[in-house]
Write a structure and sequence with these properties.
Blueprint: H1 12-23, E1 30-32, E2 42-48, H2 54-69, E3 72-78, H3 85-98, E4 102-105, H4 114-122, E5 126-130, E6 142-145, H5 148-163, E7 170-174, H6 180-193, E8 202-207, H7 212-225, E9 231-234, H8 237-249, E10 257-262, H9 265-272, E11 278-282, H10 284-299, E12 307-310, E13 313-316, H11 329-334
Parallel strand pairs: 2-3, 2-4, 4-5, 5-6, 6-12, 7-8, 7-9, 9-10, 10-11
Antiparallel strand pairs: 1-3, 11-13
Helix pairs in contact: 1-3, 2-10, 5-6, 7-8
Length: 338
């Protein structure tokens, strides 16, 4: 599913930790909040899956903005690639050593990251998962995220209604094994479409890691296996655009329904040109803003955040269907990211 930037300075003692974060491969910088200064400001860590995905770029913007508004110092890090669990573990260790009061993380591997998070929490650091839950979810103090199951369910309901009773031949272009967000979206899509795992209507399933080129390859493989595919579910919009390229090369881009999740600006614009029929839009900036505020509250003597906070999801399409609530592309463009 397939998603992270940069600012000012920490005190000299923390700079060593920041340099170490760069060595672990992801994001390498710390930003100073406007009202903080030196070591008195609350330190907040943000660790994303990657630093290039527009989703995580927007998430970092939200964290930086909230840090500045709340007089906090922001440290950031990211994996070298989506799935870089080792890089995220190193980032956690360095941030704990630097004295952060809380860590916001989009876990690359929802299970393998758990021991490192438990160690951080035992050191008194509040941990909030953003976008993707850990397994178990109780491995973090709180989760601020899109309801990814609901996001998948919405586009599944949309696809079912849009097919208007026509027999479906479905390809699912998924994320990767072991990533909770991918499974939640996939399972939600199936429920929304009214089918179960293993239903013969799903004629092909391929992993894409949320990457456009891999989405294209996956779609090519599916078309070779089942040339009569007429519905394509994709984990995110880059995978959807890759699928569209493969469909267009086969002359199938006009008669295959493509639905997706994310709501990035590129994906929303792709609906205008007919490349994607509908997407479920989520709001990464809000996740990060709320996370930073929660850490600052905790650091100043407040209670720890707990449980799940739904940061919202909206179905976006310019081809609405009866029975599925949606907003148009104009709304999507006003609220997109990237």
């Amino acid at each position: 599913m397939s998603r992270s930037l940069r600012s000012g300075a920490l005190a000299a003692g923390v700079a060593v930790a920041v340099i170490t974060l760069a060595a672990c491969g992801g994001e390498d910088t710390a930003s100073s909040g406007g009202g903080g200064g030196g070591t008195s400001a609350v330190k907040v860590g943000l660790i994303t899956k990657t630093e290039t995905n527009p989703f995580f770029v927007k998430m970092k913007e939200g964290a930086a903005s909230a840090a500045k508004a709340n007089g906090a110092e922001l440290m950031t890090a990211a994996g070298k690639f989506d799935g870089d669990n080792a890089g995220q573990i190193t980032a956690i260790e360095n941030m704990v050593a630097a004295g952060v009061k809380g860590i916001l993380i989009t876990p690359s591997d929802s299970k393998a990251i758990v021991p490192a998070l438990e160690k951080a929490r035992s050191a008194g650091v509040m941990v909030i998962a953003l976008d993707s839950p850990t397994e178990p979810q109780s491995a973090t103090d709180a989760l601020f995220a899109t309801d990814n199951f609901k996001a998948g369910e919405l586009i599944g309901q949309y696809a079912k209604a849009a097919m208007a009773g026509k027999p479906a031949k479905i390809a699912t272009l998924d994320l990767a094994p072991g990533v909770a967000v991918g499974k939640l979206r996939h399972d939600g899509f199936l429920k929304g479409f009214g089918i179960a795992e293993g239903d013969p209507a799903v004629v092909c399933s391929q992993d894409t890691q949320g990457d456009q080129s891999k989405g294209q390859t996956a779609m090519e493989n599916c078309l070779q296996k089942a040339p009569d595919i007429n519905v394509v579910y994709t984990i995110n919009e880059p995978a959807a655009l890759g699928a569209h390229t493969a469909l267009k090369a086969r002359g199938r881009d006009k008669d295959v329904l493509v639905v997706s999740v994310d709501g990035g600006c590129t994906g929303v614009k792709a609906m205008r040109s007919g490349q994607i029929a509908a997407t479920s839009q989520q709001y990464p900036l809000k996740m990060a803003e709320d996370g930073v505020k929660a850490v600052v509250t905790y650091a100043k003597g407040g209670s720890k955040a707990s449980g799940y906070t739904d940061t919202g999801v909206t179905l976006i399409t310019d081809k609405p269907v009866t029975g599925v609530e949606s907003k148009d592309v104009a709304f999507g463009l006003q609220n997109c990211w990237g």
